[in-house]
Every structure is written in structure tokens, then in C-alpha cells.
Amino acid sequence: MSPSYPTLEDVIGRTPLVRLQRLLSPELAARGNVILAKLEGNNPAGSVKDRPAISMIKRAEERGEIKPGDTLIEATSGNTGIALAMAAAIRGYRMVLIMPEDLSIERAQTMKAFGAELILTPRSGGMEYARDLAEQMAREGKGRVLDQFANADNPRVHFETTGPEIWQDTAGHITHFVSAMGTTGTITGVSRYLKSVKPEVRIVGAQPQEGSRIPGIRKWPEAYLPKIYDPSGIDELVLVSQSEAEAMARRLAREEGLFAGISAAGACCVALSIARVVSNATIVFVVCDRGDRYLSTGVFPA
Fold it and tell me: Which residues carry this modification: N6-(pyridoxal phosphate)lysine (predicted)?
């Protein structure tokens, strides 16, 4: 019998959960605290967004809403766009991505490498303008918007995969889950799962301080708050500054050998702040993507 080989989409998920060794001080470790990093940068297109990208496309196909050859449109700050570009290439769609012009050049180049078409919007309009333009194009019949911000298949895949993986890999010992908050699909889906099996788990979201621009972390105006966001499952919101997130990204690389993106570093800042005030805690944070996606930003010295 011929061996059965996986396809690229078959290897999305089941990412490693690794223990930080040097950032957690001996004093905090002696109190029984452990900080674990979920390495979502190990997904094929390099981020946690691979999960909802393939989920949104496959489930829309199953419902008969789209078929290969159709045009898909999405507003994105980067990682979802890259993941959707990959998923569209795998499953045979034309992908049009709308993103603010000030996002890192590596992200734009990666989207184009997968065959996606890019529309850049003014920095001053932010993601809000990009989202409005995507909806306008859909109304004009130029394609279908999957809408990561309102699509239930986004948090659903984290309920079905990311949450159970964390639960299994910690053998149920997890006490705190920390995630950067952007689209909010990850924190919403994982929260629903973890709260269903262990209601006392603390779910903590990382948001940017006023004036901070941290790729992948957003504090949305009320009118643009993602429809998928479920605040009932979030126990605490912690503000992170751009400077501390960028400094933590450099520390993760130098002290842990973990080359992570800036939003992941922001979540790590929050995980460490929790470790300073608790004991016997198993704290998991999501490493949304890898640091090589941010080289042109100057965060990592040349």
C-alpha cells in the first residue's frame, strides 16, 4: 500500500508549546510559576492566522457560498492577509487584500509571493478605512468578503483546535491564558474552550496603551469592535506600551532564542507581569508570528 502523505493544509496547527528558561527569574520560578509560549509561527504561512484562514474558506465552500475561481476580498493588517493568500493559493481563489500603507514591507512582499493582489490605503485611515473599502468593493460586486472580524468560523477554529491543544499539552494545569488582541478570534475561541473545561482559568488580553502602534494589537473604536469578540470570556485587559513590547521582542530573541513578532512580545510582557503576583501558575501566551516579519521596522538592530 502506498504511504499517505499530508497536504500543506493538513499540517496547520499542532504547534509546539515551549517553556521560557531565562526570562522568568529564579525567584519567580521558585514560586512554582511556569511560562509557556505557543509557537504559532510554526504554521505553514508563519502565523496563528493560518488556522482561521483555512477554516473560513473551507466552511464557506461547505455552505456553498464560494467556489474555486471566485474572488475573495479582505481587509488585513498583515498576518491574516498572508494566511488567506496561502489558503487561496492552495484552494484556487483570486485573493484581493486591502491594507494600510504603513505596514511592514515583508508582509506585503509575502502576500504577493502567494499571488494575492494588494490595495494599499492611507495610513491616516488605519484599519477602519481598509475595512470600509472592503465592504464597499463587495457591495459593488467585485468579490466576497470573508470578514475575519465578524465570521464565526474564526473563533470556532480556535475553540476546536488551539484551545484543546493547549489543554492537552499542559495536561490541564493551565491557570492563565494571555493573548494579544487584534481581530480577537484567538482569545475568543480559546477562552470558550478553556472556560468550558476549567472555568477558573484566567483569560487575559493584551491591548496597546494610548498612542502606541503595535502590529497585531488593537484597541478598536466602539463602532469597529469585531462582532466575534465576546467580552464575557475575558477576565482582564492589560495595556502594553510600544516601547516595552519592542524591547521584549529583542529580549526574547537574545535571552530565549525565540524570534517572535512584536504583538507576541506584548503578550509575553503581560505573562511576566502575571508571574510577578501569583504562585504555582502555568501561564500560556500566544506567539502569533515570527520576528523576521518585522525586520524592516527597525525593531531588531541591523
Answer: 49
